[in-house]
Write a structure and sequence with these properties.
Blueprint lengths: L2 E5 L2 E5 L2 H7 L4 E4 L3 E7 L9 E8 L3 E8 L2 E7 L5 E6 L7 E5 L3 H14 L16 H5 L22
Parallel strand pairs: 7-9
Antiparallel strand pairs: 1-2, 2-3, 4-8, 5-6, 6-7, 8-9
Length: 161
Amino acid sequence: MARILIDGDDVVVHLSWWQRVAARRGDVRVPLTAVCRVTVDADWWRALRGVRQRGTWIPGGLSIGTRGHPGGTDFVALRPGRPVVVVELRPSAPFRLLAVSVPDDDEARATAQRLSRTAPRIDTSTRYRQPVPVAEETTGGSTPRALPMAAEKRPDGRHAH
């Protein structure tokens, strides 16, 4: 099972050998200074954002690897029926969120408290995780941008302009 550790000035998600194979990567390491909020969520599926990019996803059974969304990329190591430690990261980090299932509520609370005490700049304005940024909000525009449309074909087989 994946574990969240503090190694010097870094937060490390240590993966077991089979999780490394499933995630198609090694341990995840981010600086403690990138941690902005740590929460615990009882429902593993709430930590899933976006779509699978790299790794393994078995619906209802396991999600381990990277997931992409308009706000960036998350790293998850999740199993159903277990609490999740959710670590939100600042934009300078390689991921926007780390979400790791732990065996029980006591370990989830202890891990979250340890990270919150150790990280230098924790945002305590809310105890809830922040939502994924919407594409229009991250680009600075207030109106949705139109998606490119496929060129239509005329009945004679040529493309309409």
